[in-house]
Amino acid sequence: MTSLPFLAFAASNMALGSSEEELKIKIDQACTAGDEFYKLYYENYDKKRHMLSKLYMNNAKLVWNGNFVEGITDILEFLEKLPSTETSVDTFDCQPLLDTFSQGQTTIAVTIFGSVKYHKQKARAFHQHFILTSQDNFCRIVSDDYRFLDC
């Protein structure tokens, strides 16, 4: 698996004074990057979970149904202990974050709604929210929040 390029979105950040046209371009670029990201993420989550290491930053944080895990090593260890999955994404949304909220770092928020079927279990609805940032012109997960919706 190769890491996902941050596309043209990494070339310039979004400032508060951006024009409406610049903002539209940033949103379109964020959506393209987010679309490619979530497809790559869930393909690997379902089939090659060990490959997710290429998508997380070293200091990433994960909250999985209330369980807090910090650091890429601990996150991968946690995820690899979960049963095998089949994930179906129903909808997603992507938004670029303003420079002022991300210390000038190119950053996008990706929100996913879908269903997941764990080995020999019925499918469950879930919500997942990622904060992605550009590191060496590749998407990296800074923050990952995963919740089942059927409490």
From TrEMBL:
<keyword id="KW-0813">Transport</keyword>
<dbReference type="InterPro" id="IPR002075">
    <property type="entry name" value="NTF2_dom"/>
</dbReference>
<dbReference type="GO" id="GO:0005634">
    <property type="term" value="C:nucleus"/>
</dbReference>
<dbReference type="InterPro" id="IPR018222">
    <property type="entry name" value="Nuclear_transport_factor_2_euk"/>
</dbReference>
<dbReference type="Pfam" id="PF02136">
    <property type="entry name" value="NTF2"/>
</dbReference>
<protein>
    <submittedName>
        <fullName>NXT1_2</fullName>
    </submittedName>
</protein>
<feature type="domain" description="NTF2">
    <location>
        <begin position="33"/>
        <end position="148"/>
    </location>
</feature>
<dbReference type="GO" id="GO:0006913">
    <property type="term" value="P:nucleocytoplasmic transport"/>
</dbReference>
<dbReference type="InterPro" id="IPR045875">
    <property type="entry name" value="NTF2"/>
</dbReference>
<dbReference type="GO" id="GO:0015031">
    <property type="term" value="P:protein transport"/>
</dbReference>
<keyword id="KW-0653">Protein transport</keyword>
<keyword id="KW-0539">Nucleus</keyword>
<dbReference type="InterPro" id="IPR032710">
    <property type="entry name" value="NTF2-like_dom_sf"/>
</dbReference>
